[in-house]
Structures are given as structure tokens and as C-alpha cells.
From TrEMBL:
Parts of the chain that traverse the membrane: none
KW Transferase (keyword) present: yes
Entry protein name: diphthine methyl ester synthase
Source species of the chain: Opisthorchis felineus
The family this protein is said to belong to: Belongs to the diphthine synthase family.
Top EC class for this record: transferase
Lineage, highest ranks first: Eukaryota, Metazoa, Spiralia, Lophotrochozoa, Platyhelminthes
Amino acid sequence: MLTFVGAGLASLDDLTCNGLKAIKQANFLYLDAYTSLMPGFAEELKELTGKDVKPADRELVEETDEIIEKAKNHDVVFIVIGDPLSATTHTDLILRAVDSHVQFKIIHNTSIMTAVGCCGLQLYNFGATVSIPFWDELGTPDSFYDKLLWNFSAGLHTLCLLDIKVKERSAENILRERKVYEPPRYMSCGHAAYQLLQIIERRSSADIGLSSDCLAIGLARIGSTDQVIAVSTLKEMGRGHPAESNIGKQTPITAALGGPLHSLIVPSQLHPVEEEFLGCFVRSSRDFPALPKVFAPTPAVGVDVVRELFRNHNNLVSNVRNAVRNPIIHYSVSLYPSWLVTKPFLLSLA
């Protein structure tokens, strides 16, 4: 039996009763060590249960059948930070278990996909989630931007999952088949905003696109006692970020957000309740210290400043959505599939 157990977001305390029961009954424990991060989890779990927890890196999970083979005759638990089905690689492991006639079970838990609602944006108003990868000498991929822009023009917020590099090899070491690994890297909100700004500039000739003045919401260590929410614009979020050759330094907002893990939200049209929720956070950061900290783009944070930020953002969204409604522009935008471009009425947005 192969049981996938979600560990939650922040600490050992986030384990569900069912998850802990499965762990105590297991013969072998594996911990996903490359799609997310929870410092100290394995050590605390061993102290609680007396069981060894083997870190499972990408090579072990994706390139070997060790987990599947053991699950044929033993109870194996594969622990995933967040929810087991938040990462596609875990779906692949399930399919391989099915192909090998290994029974499996899934014990769910919270993940950033649901906890993102803590910032005040309504989950119903989110579109497809995107992943922002690190750029390197092999390229500067930006295909995720098309999906982000699609969400934006449809009035849907976008959750951006930021890249994690753990036990990864450089291009040179891969080509030379050397098992030499790079130091761990965790993308910050400032880094992600910087890359988005580069894409916006690169595509500035397009008819429709995001603006550097669009709202950006940075999330750090959501679910933990020191979680932080940063409300700003893309321009401010990425301001002062070094050139690509010097990537690694912190930006002012990244410093405020602190250490990993980070996620970034690019909102679309804000509902009045969403605006009120975000504005409430800003007021509460002073009056109710127990609530998550919120940093606005100016040193002297005032509710009027934040509301003006929201108004400007909503105006930018309206301009993009109005452009999408224009049939003349439809035919010149490569973002949409050809079957949609030839039927502009299908893109009519309420």
C-alpha cells in the first residue's frame, strides 16, 4: 500500500489525525524534498514517532522505482508538504502505482492553493495557477505569461507559484554527467516581479498586456506564525532588483517579506469586499498585531493611499478587458487560440 499524506503548510502540528495514524502504521516513510519546504519537519516527526524519514529528491521519485517496489509488499507513506495532489509529479507517482497494481490512498491537507485566500481575495475569483521558473543560461521562458494575461483579461486573479531549486545540477554538470549539485535557491516575490517586468517590457509592442503599475500581492510563509502579506505594485515589488548577472540580492520588499517560501498574486478586477478585506489588513497591522503584517508601497501607510492603489489597478484592468472586447484587437492578438480569435463573441466577458 502506498499512502500519500499531506503535511500542511507550516509545521508538524498541521498533520491531520488520519495522516499521523497512517505514518505511525507505515513500514517506510518518504518525505518529498523538492517541491516545497518545511524546515525541521523530518526531525520532529522522528522524535514523535521514532521512525526514520527518508528525504525523496527528484531523482529518487521520478527516475527510480524504489518507492513503488517497496509499496508492493509493505505499507509506504509518501509525505508531501501541502496537499499530495498540488504538484503534478505526485500524480505521475500515482499512475505508476496503478500500472504496478499497487494500492494507493490519499490523505489530503491544506495547501497554498486554498490558503491563498488569507490575503482577502476570494477563491472563486482565481483563474489557472501558473509557475514562474528561474531564468538561466539556457533561456528565459515566459509561456506562463500568456495564461496570466488570459486570467487578467477574464477578470480572474492569478496565483504564481515561484521556482524552487533543490539538489539541481547546472547545465554543464548535466552535459558532463557529473553528480554535482547547485546550492538550494528559492525564488522571492521581488525576483518574480523583476522577471514579469522584463516580460512586460519585452512584449510592450503587443496590443494587450499587463502594466508595471498593476497590483501585486506577495505572500511569505503562509500558514506559519510569522507569515507576511505584502501589497504593492509590480513596479515596486521588483524595484531595485539587480541585473540578471547579480541575481540573489534582496529587494526592499523581499527583505520585508523575509525568507522562503514565497508566492505571488497578480490580481485582476477587485471586488468591493476584496478591497475592504485588504484595506482591513492594512489598518489591522497597527491595531491588531496578531494579524499578518501588510506592507503598502509607501512608508506612511494610510487607508486612502491603499484605496487609491486599488482604484488605479481596477482602471488598468478595465482598460485591458475593454481592449479584449474590441473585435479589431482580437484579430491581432496571438494570445488566443485561432478558433477563439475567429469567433470574437465567445470572448464576451460579463
